[in-house]
Structures are given as C-alpha cells and as structure tokens.
Amino acid sequence: MSRTGGGKEVLSTAAVVVGVGVGVAAFAGLGLAGAAFGAGVLSASAFDSFTARRAKPPLQHEGVKRDEQGYIENWPKVLKAVQDGGVAPELRAELWPLLLGVFPHTSTQQERSRELEQLRRLYIKLVLVCRELDDQLQALRNSTSGGSNGSGTSGGNGVAVANGADEAPADSAGLSVRSEAGSASASALQLGTRSPVPLPGNLAAFAEAHRIIVMDAVRTDLRRGMQHPAIGGRASIGPASGTGPTLTILPVAVGDGLPELMMVGPPPRDPTAPSTEAELAEIAADPGAAAEAGQLPRWRSALAHDMLWGAAHLDDPHRCQMLRLVNILSAYAVHDPETGYCQGMSDLAAVFVQLFDDDALAFACFERLMRSARRNFKHDETGIRHQLQQIARVLRDTDPTLYRKLQQLGAEDCMFAYRMVVVMLRRELPPVACCTLWEMQWAHEAAEGEACAAAGGGLGGSSSRASFRQQQTGAVAGGEGGEGVSRTSSDGAASAATATAAAGLRSTVHGLSEATASARAAAALGQRPASSGGRQSGSARLSAAVPDGSSGEDQPPEFVLQFIAAVVRAQRGRIMTDCREHDDVLRLFNSLQIEFWPSVAQARKQHKAYVGLGAVVRG
C-alpha cells in the first residue's frame, strides 16, 4: 500500500512511531566498515573491463523519442533497450524516476514538474517531523539534566550519551534504548542515581534509528562513486564554480584621478550546506512556497553535527553529502515505521543521493525501490529467505548436479548469497555494473506491468506485475467455492502429454530441467506431479521461507535473482572441485570477482526460460 500521499499522519508527531530494525547479527557479514563503492573500485582498469565485454550498448538520448511536451513516444522500445544494455550515464537522472514509477511514463514534462512539487511537499513534512522529534528529545534531555550549553546543540558527553554512547560520566544524561517485545518502548533517561524517567516510545525509537543512520552514513564513502562520469550525476560534489566572494568595482571621481573603490560581498550560499535555524523556520512556516521554490531542508541534528563535523578526516563537501543521506534515511524511517531503518539501507540510498541533486526526488526513488526491497529487512527474515529459496530453485532447475553438490555441502539454502540479495549486489559489483543491473531489473518489471495492463484491461503497478507473473507460470486458479477446472481423464492425459512435450522442448533450448517442465505442465492442468520420494526443497530453512510451507514456485524469479543464480553457476567448477565443506562455499563467495556481462547473458537466458515456459504451457 502506498504511503507517499500520507500528509495528515505525517504532521502529527504524536502518531509517528518510528520502527527500528537493527539486525546487527543478521548483517554481521555485510562488513559495513568499508563500502565497495569506494574510490578504489572506480579504477580505469575496472571500468575498461566492464565496457570491453558489453553485449549491447546502453540506451542513448537518441534512442528516446519525445514530443514537444516531453512525452516519451516509444516507451516499449525504451524498456527493451534498457533490458538489453542498461541506460547511458547521462540519461539516468531522467529515466530512473520513470523506470521506478515515481513519474508515470505517460506524463509530460510539465506534469512531472507538478508531481515533483508534490513530492517536495511530502519530503519537507517528513524532515520537519524528524526535526521536531529531535527537538523533543533535546528538550527532555535538557530538562532532565537541568540545563543546556545554550548553543542550540548539546555538547560533548551529553550528546554522545544521549544518542547511545557506551560510556559516559555518571553525572551526565544518558538515553538507553533497548528492545522489549519487539519494540523500543522500554527506553528511559537516567541521571546519576535518580530513578529512570520514561521516554515515549516514538522518541526512543526515533533516537535509536537516527543514531544508527548517522553511524552508517559516516561509514559510507560518498566522495566518489556515482560522481564518476561513466555512471552519472555530477562531476564533483563541491560547490559550483563561481561561488567565491563577489567583487564590485565602483569608479569614484576624486580630483583629476579616478581611484577605484572595491566592495567585497559575501559568497553565495552553498545549496548543499546545512540549513540554518532561520531557514528551517522559514520552510516550516510555508512548506508549500518552499516546495514551489525548490527550497528543501538540510536538517542537522546535534548528533549529526558532532559525528560528521567533528570528524577531522572529512571535508565539508563530504559532510554535506553524508547529511543528505542522513536526512533521506531518517525521513524514510518516519515514512515507513514498520520497517524503520536497518543496516544496509544506506548502501541502497547512497546511490540516489549521488545521482540526484534534488533530495525529494532522491527520497522518492529510494522509497519506490524500498517497496520491493523492504522485504529484505523484515525482522523474521521471511522475505530474504524466500528470495534465497528462489535462487536455490533456479539452481535446482538449471543445474541439478551443482545443486546436489550444494546439498552435500549443506549449502542448498544459498545463505552464501545473503549479502548479494540484501543490498542487491551493491557490494559485489562496481558502481557502473550495479546501476546497470538495477535498471535492467526495473525495465523487466515495467515491461511485465505493461504487458499485464494490456492483457487485463489497464491494470498497472505492482499488482499487475504479480498478475502477469502468475499468468506466465500457467497456473490455473480454481472457481468460486474451491471448485477447479474439470476435465475428462482422456482429454487430461492427452493435454498433459502435449503440454509436457512443448515445455520439454523449451526447457532443452533454455536450460530448464525436464523434471521441472513436466511438473509445471501437470500443475497447469490441475494435476499433482508424481513424487520422486526424495527431498523436494532442500533444507528445512528453505521450506520455512514461505509462510504456508509451499516452495514459492507460483512466480518466476526476478531478474536480479536470476543474475545471482548465474553468478553461482559461473563458479560451478570451483564448487565441484575445491569446496569440501560449507565454510569453503562461504569463503568462495566472500571474495568473488563477478564477470558481469557473461552473468547477464546467462540470467537473461534463464529468465526467458521461466517466462517463456509458462506461455508454452498455457498454449
């Protein structure tokens, strides 16, 4: 359910309950101390290796046909081109919002501008809510500690302890946020030996979420990466040229000479710098006017001030980029309290921070991405395990021998691919390759939605994609009251034989196993496939991924999951010969160098097999 239009509930801070998803144990393997989008990833050799093996060129400006109003006239061809080769770096800022559904692809430039203004209004409200929650925390902290330092930001140990530092003097105010029955409502303020003062649950949750967000932002390298000209975005993150002090030369007549009087004015304000209190107050007084003018808040909490501006190794442009990331992630934690913030989200949001200058547009694109990615951050891990199950399913279908080897090693649950799924290969691929893979995934989803809308009378969005995938698998739903499609035994046997033969032919071409083809043909006819008597779905952890215990084979795996399965298949030789135990598989994939375009080619082949197989079975 979309929450982007929820303005009323956002304005009431009393109703805001920010979910906090720390997941420290689950994300221990993420290695957050060093981001793979660092400066070393973008060496010339890495980029040349990526482009040298490109199968098809990326979509260029001339490949997008627009009318005089900015409407894209050849959208299906655009999607096909993106599926094949991605998007040219200079075109990403325009096409990503369309691929993600932030703006309808049928909209004109004027309509997109109006929609962007509405997105800015929402983003301003969310950031102002964050600011108000932080102000309440500061007020409660100051009232408990008996005062403040008068600078508008808590200083020294008070800030560190109030935001979750491990140690502090006994006479300073500390905020302890702990989990009790899945929430942070049991937090309290303590002052020396005084009795704990209860902290409202929404403030405790926000304090913990914001603390982790700032810590993760400090660890995220935003100095390079998306600024590389091969990826998109700006060439640098510093202030634009010509932002120095202004010089005005005034000729003044004095006697026979004309001496020059030089007046020096202050430099223009850097738009990426933190907003002053006066600017925030002006935005809060009239959010609509601020949105219309494109004036977005850059709120800096006391914690962000201490941790970002107190880090001597950071320069100001880098701090400002980190502050943008903090604002966007804090706003999302307020926008989606059920998910809140989990470690790993900063990897995903950083891509949009580095691509878009407009924070509201970066937030909107990140929010659209999270509509599908939020399942990766569920506390019970059902979403991530289901996706790992889908990868295992592809391996079982396309390479049974490799899958049996993984079973022997106890790795059939594909937990070695956990990090790849959680952050969508953000750590495993160089930036240019990661962006290309993401936009290929979005183009496949958009094309499926378009096809379903055409077949189902105009349905769109995620529901249409789900319906389309269900159609592609050839599943036949039962009638009302639980009655299925009835057939005579003779017609059923003949139809089953025909469908099995057709599906088997397609599986031979595209690498899908005959057993899976036969099972799907039987399922399409409402029959139960014959059981082989062996283990059907790997370990118990795999079967637990789907709540009802089913294998989740009612939908074809997404393109990114197909890509991960292709990456695993590319390591077939090493798995079969070098791996002797489960830890060997983990070590192999912890230091993996991915051949991007060969894996894309294999993923595309697998994707066509699953989607095309459903069409053949239905026919």
TrEMBL record:
<feature type="region of interest" description="Disordered">
    <location>
        <begin position="523"/>
        <end position="554"/>
    </location>
</feature>
<dbReference type="InterPro" id="IPR000195">
    <property type="entry name" value="Rab-GAP-TBC_dom"/>
</dbReference>
<dbReference type="InterPro" id="IPR035969">
    <property type="entry name" value="Rab-GAP_TBC_sf"/>
</dbReference>
<feature type="compositionally biased region" description="Low complexity">
    <location>
        <begin position="523"/>
        <end position="545"/>
    </location>
</feature>
<dbReference type="GO" id="GO:0005096">
    <property type="term" value="F:GTPase activator activity"/>
</dbReference>
<protein>
    <recommendedName>
        <fullName>Rab-GAP TBC domain-containing protein</fullName>
    </recommendedName>
</protein>
<feature type="region of interest" description="Disordered">
    <location>
        <begin position="463"/>
        <end position="492"/>
    </location>
</feature>
<dbReference type="Pfam" id="PF00566">
    <property type="entry name" value="RabGAP-TBC"/>
</dbReference>
<feature type="compositionally biased region" description="Gly residues">
    <location>
        <begin position="147"/>
        <end position="158"/>
    </location>
</feature>
<feature type="domain" description="Rab-GAP TBC">
    <location>
        <begin position="86"/>
        <end position="445"/>
    </location>
</feature>
<feature type="region of interest" description="Disordered">
    <location>
        <begin position="143"/>
        <end position="177"/>
    </location>
</feature>
